[in-house]
Amino acid sequence: MKEQILSQLSTECPWRDTLYWYDTIDSTNTKAKALAKDGAPHGTVLIAGSQTGGRGRLGRSFSSPAGMGVYLSVILRPNCPPEDLMHLTCAAAVAMCDAVERTAGIHPRIKWTNDLVFEKKKLGGILTELCPDPNTALVDYGIIGIGINCCQTKLDFPSDIQNIAASLSMVSGKTIRPSCLAAAMIEALVDMDRTLFTEKEHIMDRYRKDCITLGQDILLVRGEDSLYGTAVDLDAEGGLIVRFADGSVKTVTSGEVSVRGMYGYI
User: Fold this and answer.
1) N or C: which end of the chain has fewer CB within 10 A?
2) What's the rounded mean pLDDT across residues 160-174?
3) Phi and psi, residue 111, nearest 5°
4) Is 226 in contact with 255 (CB distance < 8 Å)?
5) pTM of the prediction?
6) Could you read off the pLDDT of 215-232 as tens digits, one per residue?
7) Could you write out the DSSP letters of every residue in the chain?
8) Residues facing residue 219 across a β-bridge
9) Angle between helices 88-104 and 178-195 (to 10 degrees)
10) 100: exposed, middle or buried (Cβ count in 10 Å: 0-12, 13-18, 19+)
11) Residues 233, 251 contacting (CB under 8 angstroms)
C-alpha cells in the first residue's frame, strides 16, 4: 500500500521520505507520539490499514476496519507558543475538505469542531494533540490524527453508528481507493502546513463557510451540565460563540456540542 500511496504523490512532496505504513496498529496517534518523543522530524506521516484502538475526541473510539478507510497521523514541529496553534484543528478540517473533494468529487461540511459530515452523516474525524517543551514553553511537537471512511456500506459500520455514519463511497456513488485518498490528504496537509501561520484569517473564513454548526440550535454538554443555545459565530482561534437560552453570549472551547437534527439530537 505504501508504494501505491507514493505513486499518487507529487515527486516534489516534501514528506515522501518520512512516510510510514502499518498493516495494523493500535493507534496512529499513539505511535506518532512515541516517534515524536524519539525525535521524528516535522512532516513524519503514519498511515495504517486498520487500527485496534483508534481514538477520537473525549476518549471515544473510532471504528477503523481493515481496507475501509484512511487512518493517518502527521507529526508537526512548528516551534511556536501553543496559543498560536489554537486554530490547528480548524486548519486540518479545511484541508481534509479539499482532499475529499479532490478524491470523491463531493465537498463535505464540518461539524464543530472536528467532524467531517455530508448530509448529516459523519464521514470522519480529526484529533489534534500538542506537547509543549517544559524548558521553552514552546510546542515541542503537534500531532494531527485523521480517520476518514472510504469504502463501507451501511452494514459495515457497528450497529450503534449505522444511522449516523457514512463512507465516501456511500455518499458519492463512486469506488474510492484508500491509497488515492491518502495521497490527497498528505498533499492537502502539506499545503496547510505552508499557510498555517501566514493565511490564518483565510483559513478561518473557509472554516466558517463550511461549518454546519453555525446558525444552528445546539446542546452543550460539560460533565453533568447540559446547556441549550444557538451557535452564532467563531472567534479568531476557532472557539464557538454561543448565545444561550438565558440570553448570555459566551465562547465555547471545550465540551461536546450536539447539533439539532444530527447524531440523534432531536
Assistant:
1) C
2) 95
3) -95, 120
4) no
5) 0.93
6) 999 999 987 888 999 999
7) -HHHHHHHS-TT-TTGGGEEEESSBS-HHHHHHHHHHTTPPTTEEEEES-BSS-B-GGG-B----TTSEEEEEEEE---S-GGGGTTHHHHHHHHHHHHHHHHHS---EEETTTEEEETTEEEEEEEEEEEE-TTTSSEEEEEEEEEEE-S--GGGS-GGGTTTB--HHHHH-S---HHHHHHHHHHHHHHHHHHTTTTHHHHHHHHHHHBTTTTSEEEEEETTEEEEEEEEEE-TTSPEEEEETTS-EEEE-SSEEEETTSTT--
8) 228, 258
9) 140
10) buried
11) no
Indicate the pairing of strand 19-22 with strand 44-48: parallel
Which positions ≥6 away from 214 have C-beta within 8 Å? 112, 208, 231, 232, 233, 234
CA 85 to chain centre: 15
Q: Identify which of 125, 94, 102, 70 has the alpha carbon closest to the alpha carbon of residue 172.
A: 102
- Are 42 and 137 in contact by the 8 Å Cβ rule? The answer is no
Q: How many other CB atoms sit within 10 Å of the CB of residue 91?
A: 26
- pLDDT, one tens digit per residue, over 56-94 is 554 455 667 778 899 999 999 999 999 999 999 999 999
Q: Which residues contact 161 (CB under 8 A, 6 or more apart)?
A: 63, 122
The residue type at 124: G
Q: Which three cell numbers stand for residue 20?
A: 510510514
Query: In this structure, is the dihedral angle defined by the CA atoms of residues 106, 212, 130 and 69, taken in order, positive or negative?
Result: negative
The residues that bridge with 142 in the sheet, in sequence order, are: 76, 130
Report the amino acid identity of residue 192.
M
Give the number of other Cβ atoms within 10 Å of residue 228's Cβ.
13
